[in-house]
Amino acid sequence: MKLNNIILLDRDPKSRWTVEYNANTIDSILPSTDGELRSGPSSPEPSEETNTGGEPASLLLPALSHPHIHLDKPYLLTTNIQHHPTHAHQTSYPDYTDLTPKTGSFSEALSFTGQAKARYTPADLYLRGSQLIATSLTQGVTSCRAFVELDHVTGTTCLEAAVQLKESFGGKFELQICAFAQDPVFSSDHGEENRRILEDTLLNYAGAVEAVGSTPYVESDREAGLQNIKWAIEMALQHDLHLDFHLDYNLGDSEPMVWDVIRLLNEAEWTSKTKPGKTIVLGHCSRLTMFTNKEMKELATQIHDSGLPIHFLGLPTSDLFMMGRPDDDGEESKGAYRPRGTLQIPSMIRDYGLNGCLGVNNVGNAFTPWGTGDPLALASLGVGIYQAGTSDDAKVLLECVSQGARRAIGLETGGAEERESSGDLLWEGRKGDLLLIKNNEWIGCPGHLGLKVPARQRISVKDVVWDPPEIRLRTVLK
Ligand SMILES: [Zn+2]
């Protein structure tokens, strides 16, 4: 595949390039003049050619990635299956319309999503999951870590749908399955049963599952939370899996457990016992936003000294919606004071040298009822949330939803770490999917008005992050 008239985000925005991209690899990057079609000995018979000559130049980016997405519970609030033109007659699709939030509270979200879970059917899980993946592909996403819940309610139903989806989208979408304990595994009436289901699944679905995840904060007390962490580490080591925690999702209601995670990983000798390339992701971690600079420094020091491959994951769309809810509406309570605790990811990367990335977590359910799951919209939201308004910030944010996200979940990131650390987004020899973003020549006003005006051209990272291009201008290249 030969791509002409290309703008590369790391290079002079006035320069135009011809990029040869074959078998998922950038073979060459050569200067071209605007719109010129290059062909010759260096590019024998390209099988496919994207000629944008005469048209505005296109931008080339690394493909986007979801480092954290719940594959089994998207679109619960917007499914409306009974009104679907072709599926309406089918009875295998449950109705969730009565579970539309009434108060929008966290406890209601937990309760309604729990009720929804009891209604899942294989066909419904497959349909919503495939819609999520198809939408992601149109947005420029080609890989994800997909969380599927395993417990006494779902059994392995969610996992089986994920395995089926992985097969259906094979080669087109890299779907990494994370076996996930959303519910307690060391407390509550069902803890033991939930744990047994998880453990059996890791044995029975070896090969299909690539990561194990848990939620220590849902356990009834700190002791059970610690057991949860220890158990998940053990499972990851035993089955050669990546490890993923939903952690410290509070703003001061309990002591942070991140220190325990590091301690228990060290005690389990993670760095010497794990296979190369296995990573650890810590998501949410809102409690860390209350750390002093000194505590942040201590955290970074402990992680660097231990050599643990820990990646922090910001999930701002969920955190903004869930964190900082007022306790009550009494005269003395401060209903207007709502700290939206979400990890300050760009600062963690830049100021503390930690690994960080961003994910959308949920799409269209009671935990995150808003948004389309678009990673570029997420990066754009980050400009405001993180007060990250420079061109350099824009590059960090783009990395957080593309190569940084892939690195976090242990996927290949191009096979050239040294080039990545130099800061280039794309280079000759890079392996991996790409995202082509076209520029519009015109902005057309609604048809009947018969007007069009020249479109602004996107030529840099800031243009893409500050003003994410519409979906129809994005094309995934594999
Ligand atoms: Zn999550």
CATH homologous group name of the largest domain:
Metal-dependent hydrolases
What is the domain tally? 2
Provide the structure class. alpha/beta
Helix content: 25-40%
Largest sheet: 8 strands, parallel
* Rough outline: globular
Give the low-pLDDT segments.
35-52
The share of residues in extended strands comes to: 15-25%
What is the CATH fold-level name of the largest domain? TIM Barrel
Which ligands does the model contain, each kind named once?
Answer: zinc ion
Protein name: Amidohydrolase-related domain-containing protein
Organism: Exophiala bonariae
Region (Disordered): 29-59
GO molecular function: hydrolase activity, acting on carbon-nitrogen (but not peptide) bonds, in cyclic amidines
Describe it for me?
With 478 residues, the protein is of the alpha/beta class. The protein has two domains: 2-62 and 420-477, Urease, subunit C, domain 1 (Roll); 64-414, TIM Barrel, CATH 3.20.20. Helix content is 32%, strand content 19%. The protein has 15 helices and 17 strands. Strands 6-7-8-9-10-11-12-13 form an eight-stranded parallel sheet. Strands 1, 2, 3, 4, 5, 14 and 17 form a seven-stranded mixed sheet that branches. The relative contact order is 0.14. Mean pLDDT is 91; it is low at 35-52.
